[in-house]
Amino acid sequence: MAKNKTTETQNSVTDFINAVENEAKRKDAFELLKTIQETTGFEPKMWGPSIIGFGSYHYKYDSGHEGEAPLAGFSPRKTALTVYFYLPEEKRDELLSKLGKHTSSKACIYIKKLADIDIEILKKIILLSIQYTQKLYPSK
Description:
Blueprint: H1 13-18, H2 23-40, E1 44-47, E2 51-54, E3 57-60, E4 66-69, E5 72-76, E6 81-84, H3 89-99, E7 103-104, E8 108-111, H4 119-136
Antiparallel strand pairs: 1-2, 2-5, 3-4, 5-6, 6-8, 7-8
């Protein structure tokens, strides 16, 4: 079975964000770091080379593939801040419609700048995502 590429590392979150070239994106990344840490109560850790994760959970799929993943996370990518989430379908559209200017995929929210979104809605998304993930993959 393939080894997971995205695992928790000992790399510095601060050094990673400080290496973000765009000053505005770097500032937003530090603000998002603070917001998610305060919202979740988890210390930020680097996961792989470019994801900042908060907390963790163990998953095991029906295929037998299993591993560890962060409960909440984001990455300051070149084109956008990418926030990772996992919401129940019945809440997804409602919350994303209230978030503000963003795009999204199945498990990611792409934000150009934090000023474009309602940070309180993002906090709700993060907390609900953690609750939903913990319900799907309860710790033993």
